[in-house]
Amino acid sequence: MRQVKPLEYLSIRKQCSLLQVPRSRLYYSPVPEKPENLKMMEIMDKHLINHPAEGVLSMVGLMAEHGFHVNPKRIRRLFKIMDYCAIYRRKNLSKLGQADYIRSYLLRNLVIDRPNQVWSTDITYIPMKKGFLYLTAIMDVYSRKILSWGISNTLEAQWCVDVFNEAVERYGAPEIINSDQGSQYTSAVWTRAVEKQNVKISMDGKGRAIDNIWIERFWKTIKYNYLTFHPAETGLELYKNVDYYVHYYNNKKHQTTGLKPNDAHMSLNTQNLAS
After folding, report:
1. Considering the entire predicted model, what is its pTM?
2. How many CA atoms lie within 13 A of 206 on its CB side?
3. What is the pLDDT averaged over residues 176-191?
4. How far apart are CA 60 and CA 40, in angstroms?
5. DSSP state of 100
6. Which residues fall within 8 angstroms of residue 13, CB to CB, at 6 or more apart?
7. Residue 217 contacts by C-beta under 8 Å, 6 or more apart in sequence?
8. Which residues contact residue 194 at a Cβ distance below 8 angstroms, ignoring those fewer than 6 apart?
9. What phi and psi, each to the nearest 5 degrees, are found at residue 240?
10. Beta-bridge partner residues of 146
């Protein structure tokens, strides 16, 4: 009789394959952090989502207004945890060996008039009752549909690739995908995976959060219209909350387009059938 290996001896990828669970959807344990730091990150997160151009010194002042007297070094550490490095002045990527993977911003003056023409992706920090996790998502810009998403307790590039591959498997590859210049997106892992699908890579201008405004608006919506009022304690609880809200969002009429994201994106199938 063939002996079957217990799950603990199988790789994460193999376990996901056997259980038919997307690797990007694994729910992780929250990253622990001191309660004081969690409170400061929550305050900064709410502030920066409306004022993305403000940096370290502004946050030192904001913390003082809330009774936290901290130095710039501590704010920089919290910014790094929250993955806010794309918002304030970034390090010179050429010195970090990432210059080869920086791409130009391709969306300026581009008319986006069909599904799967342009996708937008990003990562955001999600505060929880006892720690935090990260959320990434891919949005179709034309329809505003969230195509795929994942949560993690690390910022590894492979996690972003898994979410991208899941979207491609479901909906086919886009013509262009836009991101910021975060370390995940300026890595060889991300660049090679995307370009393997013959997808053009577009990247926000340095420090220009408005270049990826579509998914930034989604972060504001999911975090402060829902997740803030339903703070999760575990990764599984956060997974269920995000899953619920993405389904709700994709089936609710969008304020800008006047259409439900699911319906707007389905026009892609209609176009394909017509052709």
Report:
1. 0.78
2. 7
3. 93
4. 10
5. G
6. 23
7. none
8. 164, 177, 201
9. -65, -40
10. 139
